[in-house]
Amino acid sequence: MPEKTILEARHLDKYFYDPVKFHVLKDINLRVEEGEFVSIVGSSGSGKSTLLYTLSSLDTDYEGEVIIDQTALRSLSNDDLARLRNRSIGFIFQSHYLLADFTAIENILLPGLKLGKRSKPDLLRAALEKMDLLGIRDQADKAVNTLSGGQQQRVAIARALINDPKIIFCDEPTGNLDSGNARIVFDLLKDLAHNYKQTILMVTHDESYQTDRQIRLHDGRVVD
Ligand SMILES: Nc1ncnc2c1ncn2[C@@H]1O[C@H](COP(=O)(O)OP(=O)(O)O)[C@@H](O)[C@H]1O
Ligand SMILES: [Mg+2]
Hints:
Blueprint: E1 5-16, E2 22-33, E3 37-41, H1 48-55, E4 63-68, E5 71-72, H2 78-88, E6 89-92, H3 104-115, H4 120-133, H5 149-161, E7 167-171, H6 179-196, E8 199-203, E9 213-218, E10 221-223
Parallel strand pairs: 3-8, 3-9, 6-7, 7-8
Antiparallel strand pairs: 1-2, 1-4, 4-5, 9-10
The structure holds adenosine-5'-diphosphate and magnesium ion.
């Protein structure tokens, strides 16, 4: 199958201005193909999170171009950007940001209900399917705050998947987990990329994880 570029950055530069002007991302050029599992690595402070937020449309203050699925983000109105985010992008963070008092399945359904493209029964079916895939179906009706850290992170992955996003952005998704749970979550992400053609871009400082490709940042620049 021919490769299809799903994400591209062209001459991406970014500055922070507070407390002083600081050039945080320096002429970043990269491409990610559909179905690739790519990690962004580099030492603390090298700009990994900033790059992820910029590529994922959460941070819109940059120079250069970010292109997702043939669309230059800069060309979109705020409404269209929000729509692209809901429809095409999944997010997984180190802290899962689940609603603690809601059940696992309620959390997973939320982005689907927000997008409003599918009926509730369809969404329920999809949510259960994702939970099956992630091995947490039996946790569906439990309040999130009664689940283990590893289970919570899998709920967050299912939530990121509910709208069948083209690309999932993860910032240290295993950072808060013990090594056993971290391995489970990493293996699930890898399975999503390799067996379900899901594109994944993951920031990690743990270089023992084997992804298809590493993008290394040093001092705001892509190296090697
Ligand atoms: N909102 C901000 N304002 C000013 N400086 C920031 C801000 N966020 C991050 N930085 C700085 O930018 C650099 C890169 O940060 P970050 O992208 O979080 O690095 P990493 O994720 O690789 O640890 C660091 O020097 C950090 O202190
Ligand atoms: Mg970071």
